[in-house]
Amino acid sequence: MKKILMVFPMVYEAAHVFKKFAGAQAVLGATADLKKNDKVHVRGIVCGFGCKASRERVAKAVKEFAPEVVVLAGFAGACRHDIKNGTALIDKLSRHEKINHALKEFEFVPVRIASVDKLADEDHKARLHAEGYEAVEMEGEFFRSDIAKISKDIDFAHIRWVSDAADSKLPMPFLESMMDFETGDMRMSKRKLVKTFIFQPRVFKELMKFAKEIAPAQAAYDKGIEKFISAL
User: Fold this and answer.
1) Is the entire prediction scored with pTM above 0.90?
2) What tens digit of pLDDT does each residue of 156-191 get?
3) Nearest one of 65, 63, 54 to 28, comparing CA atoms
4) Which domains does the chain have, with CATH numbers?
């Protein structure tokens, strides 16, 4: 039986498949068996965005589950202007030979993905693109390194869907205020949203614009990740 660990940094990246395949709620630190038969056992974990706690959760899950393949999946920001929201990407450093049968169902765009320690705004994406990167996120390179230290026999595959284009205007201070770098959690309280609406109408407008922009990407991601797991 082939064992595959699906790693989802954010709750909203795991929510659909946790409910679809396991009837479970995705919360930070949760695991769920997404598929299990005589050929394959797929387990998912919500690890949190890139920080010390999320790296510890992934390392613990890898040691306990002992997978042949770890698949990091979720959203990424585009650094190239021709890569649009909802586009499926695969890291050029991804080791995915053992799951090629599932990947062939998609037209993944091979890209070089940067891993950074904070959200990337438009200017940061431009600098990364100048360095040769085509997308950006906060976990890949760190998890790849940690897993290699556990066992070089574990393949690390890395797939993403684009949530924000290279020129997206992200409400950075608001989004960063939602991030807990101790736990890797990201939460938006209704109280904070109401206060932003009242006292920071410009920021609220930016947030609503971004929410409208990301909605089709979320739909494409949910459909794509469900199809991918079904094909494993």
Assistant:
1) yes
2) 999 999 999 999 887 777 778 788 999 999 876 666
3) 54
4) 2-169+214-231 (3.40.50.1580)
